[in-house]
Fold:
Amino acid sequence: MSTEQALVLDAPGAHRLVEREQAAPGPGDARVRVHASGICGSDREIYQGNRPEGYVRYPVTPGHEWSGTVEAVGAGVPGSLVGRKVVGEGFRNCQVCDRCHAGDTTLCGAGYEETGFTQPGAMADTLTLPARLLHPLPDDADLTEAALLEPAACIAAAALKANAQPGERVAVVGTGTLGMLAVQFLAAASPAELLVVGTRPDRERLSLEFGATGFRTRDRLDATTAGYDVVIETAGSASAARASAALLRRGGRLVLTGIPAPGALGLDPTDLVVRQLTVHTVFGAAPAAWAHAVRVFGAGLLAPGPLITHQLPLADFAAAIDLVGSGDPKVGKVLLTPAS
Structure:
């Protein structure tokens, strides 16, 4: 039997590269040859031990942002999938509860299970998962860029909930990976104005290249910066959530995608009621959002490539984690690539 390499986190701060036997996919499963796996803030959480209880199970192979090529399928899976470039959903939903039947698979009543957190992830040579979670890509898709389709799917969920209409005034708060992806999704909706708000002036050029019509750092916001129909918040802090709400017109729509620290002070309920604001939240991405992200990517309306600044081998996992948490403005999305 062939062997392969995989990264394993035994506990916070304790990781190793292991050699394991490569198993054949079981019924309903597909084995994917991993091309690249991205690192995000939640991967740093499980490495540092900050992931909330119930949302990680050690030992675990991380990696929920990934792309690859199907190399084998189990019984009951169409053989035509073999050789296809794919990405895949992370949430392992039960498919039988009322939320799953409604398409809200991230709210599955069976509890939380997700690739890279409670189930083996893609920081390995291969990843085996239920084939029903796969989303095939165009044959000419760039698999390096496609490794960012998991965060793109989360932003697609936000864009669908925001329901921005052509000619509306829209804004994005946050200029990290999620923020820059949100700019591209909103730009595709033909807004009259697309403002980006962040803390890093160096993100202005990229924001404008992605379709923004204006850029401001958060310290330059004032009472005149308001009246927006839609705001998508991606910064993950309570202050960013409040700044986002302040940008909205009466009756505006806010989508929160960031997760502040536990116990953070939230939005003012009086303000929400008096101004009749609609607030949506996003945690993960349901199938419809994944399909939307893949469709937009395939149509050439989504270009994640410029966000990728580093590609390192699996063996350099610790260095990659340090890069992601360095605060260096030159560090964007960091990818890990299997040695094979």
